[in-house]
Amino acid sequence: YPTFLIAEMACAHQGNINDASDLVDIAVKAKTDAIQLQVFKKEIYMSPIYKDYGLITQLELSQEEWIRVIDLIKKENILFFAAGYDVESVRLLINKEVDAFKVHSSDLSNPEVLKEVAKSKKPIFLSTGASSFEEIKDALNFLKKNGSDNIILMHGYQGYPTQLEDTNLNYIKTLKRVFGLNVGFYDHVDGGSILAKIIPIMAIGYGAQVIEKHFILTREDKGVDYQSS
To answer: Which of 14, 120, 176, 220 has the fewest CB atoms within 10 Å around its CB?
Structure first.
């Protein structure tokens, strides 16, 4: 099968719905297989005393704005994936007929989000991050117990930008061997480096069937997420 390419918007919209709409256009023109969103309600999943709460407030889109973005995606010939960081956001995504869910590695042991995602019966891209085999196994068992039977593991390093020595591409083979599942790679390499093009190709050589790549309107503005986009 050809490698499946996910365009990860993350917070590259900078909290601006017009930028989010422009990013959808870019992903469509690039002919990626899917565009992926990160949807959250900050007051549910983050404490107000967290040091980046103010920044997250600036980056947050309202549910009404997300619905407008999702409706725009639905008009195009592209799949719609998303990570919901809280139960309310997950339910919004289910109501808008998301094609697949991403579960961030920070939610690998979050039973509320895992259960809601599993109940949807949608395919799940499960990010492993720095999780142990036991943590990954527990998450897989929990998802399957709650109705999910279509899970792809995603390997990647949660450092921005990821250094070459931290990519650990051989771990793709390890995950396949240990869990017997398809494995993809999410890439956080410096978007301005030649490695941003080379590392994903190498990951495919190591067996990655899915590549998740961040993208942004322009790197020159150095907005949120530009480092790995």
So the answer is: 220
